[in-house]
């Protein structure tokens, strides 16, 4: 049974990968530590622990966020998706499959964050969100092509110490293309 709340802790229910997890957390506990240390969801990695590397990227209500800069208490009731929640049974998410097929990693430490980030990047792009390198940001210009330059910019919050960037860009482009083919949209 979870310990009773105190002046420095609260009872919260985290919604992670479609499951509800009631737990008591110290108010200073980050979402990253709650996922890894309390829920044993160790797919989400701790790199810098200060918001600079992207290794801890998860999706919160479909938007990417670095879990090391989120307090667990502030994530209560929000829909959190970690890398463990992307596959459907034995079927990998298309982004996971593309990383696998195209060797989008070496040591793999940054990979869960890269994959979660790429999932959101592809949706952001499909929704027409511009990036810092988008040439024409007028609404009437429509969805910008998802060029390699666009992918690099949109994924620039996720660092890879192995330097697997070339294959990561290819994997994101392939997954975006597959999404466009499924939905009739455009990726490039
Ligand atoms: S561990 Fe969160 S951004 Fe580096
Ligand atoms: S694959 Fe090793 S840090 Fe990215």
Automatic annotation (TrEMBL):
Keywords: Iron, Metal-binding, Oxidoreductase
InterPro entries with a match to the protein in the record: 2Fe-2S-bd, 2Fe-2S-bd_dom_sf, 2Fe-2S_ferredoxin-like_sf, 2Fe-2S_ferredoxin-type, 2Fe2S_fd_BS, Aldehyde_Oxdr_Iron-Sulfur, Beta-grasp_dom_sf
All residue ranges annotated as the 2Fe-2S ferredoxin-type domain in the record: 10-86
PROSITE patterns, per database record: 2FE2S_FER_1, 2FE2S_FER_2
Pfam families assigned to the protein according to its UniProt record, in alphabetical order: Fer2 (PF00111), Fer2_2 (PF01799)
UniProt cross-references to Gene3D superfamilies, sorted A to Z: 3.10.20.30, [2Fe-2S]-binding domain (1.10.150.120)
Signal peptide region: none
This protein's name: 2Fe-2S iron-sulfur cluster-binding protein
Organism, scientific name: Streptomyces glaucus
Species lineage: Bacteria, Bacillati, Actinomycetota, Actinomycetes, Kitasatosporales
């Amino acid at each position: 049974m979870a310990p009773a709340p105190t002046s420095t802790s609260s009872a919260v229910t985290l919604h992670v990968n479609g499951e509800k997890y009631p737990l008591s957390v110290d108010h200073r506990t980050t979402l990253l530590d709650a996922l890894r240390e309390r829920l044993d969801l160790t797919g989400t990695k701790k790199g810098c622990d200060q918001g600079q590397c992207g290794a801890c990227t998860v999706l919160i209500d479909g938007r990417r966020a670095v879990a090391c800069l989120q307090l667990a208490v502030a994530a209560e009731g929000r829909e959190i998706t970690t890398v463990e929640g992307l596959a459907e049974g034995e079927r990998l998410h298309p982004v996971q499959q593309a990383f696998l097929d195209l060797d989008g990693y070496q040591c793999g430490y940054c990979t869960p964050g890269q994959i979660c980030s790429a999932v959101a990047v592809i949706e952001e792009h499909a929704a027409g969100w511009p990036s810092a390198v988008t040439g024409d940001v007028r609404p009437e210009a429509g969805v910008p092509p998802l060029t390699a330059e666009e992918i690099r910019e949109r994924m620039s919050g996720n660092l890879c110490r192995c330097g697997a960037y070339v294959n990561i860009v290819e994997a994101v482009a392939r997954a975006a293309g597959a999404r466009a083919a499924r939905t009739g949209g455009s990726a490039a």
